[in-house]
Q: What sequence folds into this?
């Protein structure tokens, strides 16, 4: 077992997934916090779905969508992009599973920004995008950072969706969580426990940072 | 000239107004819940009337019939909220310059001079006293070259002594920058000291609209006023 390879791949994939999910997550969190439109509850429900659905089921759905003959996979195949059972699938599964957690935390952060600041910025001539970038975003920053760390941590722990859409290919798509399962199942307890220690350390650090940065933690204020 | 002719509903409350403000400083006077702040919110574009029009000079800011509803950032309205709402993550200078429009007057030196905020520019918002915050908020609103300045009880949160010190600044803004001002207050002394015309509101309706002199001569009692 190459502990370093598995750990570094998992960290890199989680980082890529976090970056991939971030723009969509910010937009969704903002829309759900401030938008007033029909279908808001539906959007909220759809975004949160991976949080409560069995991750394996989410993985199966992704597999159906991104398989070479699936509706999205077929389009990607035409431009030479293959997703399932590649490292891209790992990143995709991580991003989808981290998104709802990020959106929920970030949305709460945006909701905590007092509207009067945004209203004043608008009366001072700032169009909505400038209000977002210069007022809402910086005032919600602690929550957004906490949300990002939480999303990153969730990506590292991702298992169910990953195993379905990316498999457990040693040296390729095998992440920390998937490797722990594989080693435990095949009786390689020493390797499984070593990886367990690594993932526990990463999860602890990520949660500690996230909690410390969250508004009201008393650490930064 | 500010022409307000609109109806705005908010739960049980209905604001129904039809006036033309022609003088430099108009005081919106009346008891709590009369609809004074709602008028300012509607002019600033923060609340949407159900019907009617809002015209500022030659610009239509809102017209239900013509389906015009300019967003707040296109209205060129300087609005100082009751609690001033200075951006807490910016220092005074960044607050004051936030809404600066390129190529428009007044210059920072002029505004900072009138309101004496020059020494405060590099301070953090949290370090300011109540009176200083009021002056910085005024400077910030003025730097956006507004075509009208909306002040929502700018002196309500400060004590009598501070009030006496800030009023002259407001008078200088009125006299030196010639920006029309609509000013919400429930303090008779402030009306007398500052306004040129008075609009008395009660329960969402205009009960009186007169020049200050007439108002002073024959103050009609309105329920609940000091």
A:
């Amino acid at each position: 077992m190459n502990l370093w390879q598995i750990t570094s791949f998992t960290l890199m994939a989680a980082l890529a997934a976090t970056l991939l999910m971030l723009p969509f997550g910010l937009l969704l969190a903002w829309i759900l916090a401030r938008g007033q439109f029909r279908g808001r509850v539906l959007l909220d429900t759809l975004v949160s779905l991976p949080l409560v659905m069995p991750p394996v089921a989410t993985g199966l759905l992704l597999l159906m969508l991104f398989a070479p003959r699936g509706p999205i996979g077929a389009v990607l195949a035409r431009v030479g992009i293959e997703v399932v059972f590649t490292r891209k699938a790992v990143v995709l599964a991580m991003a989808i599973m981290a998104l709802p957690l990020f959106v929920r935390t970030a949305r709460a952060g945006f909701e905590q920004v007092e509207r009067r600041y945004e209203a004043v910025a608008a009366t001072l001539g700032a169009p909505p995008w400038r209000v977002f970038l210069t007022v809402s975003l910086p005032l919600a920053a602690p929550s957004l950072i906490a949300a990002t760390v939480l999303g990153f941590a969730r990506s590292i722990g991702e298992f169910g969706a990953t195993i379905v859409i990316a498999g457990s290919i040693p040296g390729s798509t095998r992440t920390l969580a998937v490797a722990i399962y594989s080693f435990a199942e095949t009786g390689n307890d020493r390797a499984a426990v070593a990886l367990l220690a690594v993932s526990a350390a990463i999860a602890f650090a990520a949660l500690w940072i996230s909690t410390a940065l969250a508004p009201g933690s008393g650490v930064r204020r | 000239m500010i022409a307000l002719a609109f109806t705005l509903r908010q739960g049980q409350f209905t604001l129904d107004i039809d006036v033309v403000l022609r003088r430099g400083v108009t005081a919106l006077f009346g008891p709590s819940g009369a609809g004074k702040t709602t008028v300012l919110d509607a002019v600033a574009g923060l609340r949407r009337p159900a019907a009617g029009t809002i015209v500022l000079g030659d610009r239509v800011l809102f017209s239900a019939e013509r389906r015009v509803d300019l967003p707040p950032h296109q209205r060129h309205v300087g609005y100082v909220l009751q609690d001033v709402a200075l951006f807490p993550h910016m220092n005074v200078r960044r607050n004051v310059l936030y809404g600066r429009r390129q190529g428009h007057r007044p210059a920072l030196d002029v505004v900072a001079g009138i309101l004496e905020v020059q020494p405060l520019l590099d301070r953090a918002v949290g370090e300011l006293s109540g009176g200083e915050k009021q002056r910085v908020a005024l400077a910030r609103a003025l730097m956006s070259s507004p075509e009208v300045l909306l002040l929502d009880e700018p002196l309500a949160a400060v004590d009598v002594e501070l009030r006496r010190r800030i009023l002259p600044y407001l008078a200088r803004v009125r006299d030196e920058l010639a920006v029309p001002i609509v000013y919400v207050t429930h303090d008779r002394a402030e009306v007398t000291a500052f306004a040129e015309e008075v609009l008395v509101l009660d329960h969402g309706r205009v009960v009186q609209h007169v020049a200050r002199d007439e108002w002073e001569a024959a103050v009609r009692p309105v329920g609940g006023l000091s």
Q: What stands out?
A: Chain A has a mean pLDDT of 92.
